Amino acid sequence: MNWGHKITGVIIVFVGMIMFMVVKAMRQDNIHLVSKDYYKEEIEYQKEINKLKNVQNLKEGFAFQYISKHQTFKLKFPKNTTQGQVTFFRPANARKDFTVPVETGTDGIQLIPIANCKFDKGFWRVKINWQDAQKKYYVEKRIIIAKDGNVEIKG
């Protein structure tokens, strides 16, 4: 076999691999954007910044923690909270995203048990929106659920 045949063989194998990767990439259907209305949300981001500033100016603080003994997320809202929602966002798989309405008692506390939710192990973003009679608020937390069930909250 001479050099010409070897070079031709290498080129054919290379083109075949490239074609295989292109076909495989084109057939993927589980690619998800950050959100369905990504561009619209990006334009309205200034409203989110204003909500974040409102949280910093709260007299009564907001708290988000994980209680490992009960495997529950505990959210402490200001007592005058009227409505809101907590969105659990899974960047790796948009099909796992879900939203929980804010339902606090007179003490402003809401508990969200992990067992009742469809949590996979790995990275999650928690987007918390709520409002009172005058202002709107927004907090974003990052959580990591480990294989052993431990939960780490960041942000």
> What portion of residues is helical?
25-40%
**General shape:** elongated
The CATH architecture name of the largest domain reads Sandwich
Please summarize the sheet with the most strands.
5 strands, antiparallel
Q: Summarize the helix and strand pattern as letters.
A: HHHEEEEEEEE
| Unreliable residue stretches | none
Q: Based on DSSP secondary structure assignment, what is the total number of beta strands?
A: 8
Give the name of the CATH superfamily of the largest domain: Immunoglobulins
How many domains? Answer: 2
Mean pLDDT over the full residue set? 85
Cα-based radius of gyration, to the nearest Å: 23 Å
How many angstroms does the end-to-end distance come to? 63 Å
Instruction: Tell me the name of the CATH class of the largest domain.
Output: Mainly Beta
Number of helices: 3
CATH topology heading of the largest domain: Immunoglobulin-like
Describe the protein.
This protein has 3 helices and 8 strands; from the N terminus they run αααββββββββ. Strand 7 (136-145) and strand 8 form a beta hairpin. Helices cover 27% and strands 32% of the residues. A 5-stranded antiparallel sheet has the order 4-3-6-7-8, covered by helices on one side. A 3-stranded antiparallel sheet has the order 1-2-5, with no helix packed on it. It is of the alpha+beta class. It folds into 2 domains: 1-31; 38-154, Immunoglobulins (Immunoglobulin-like).
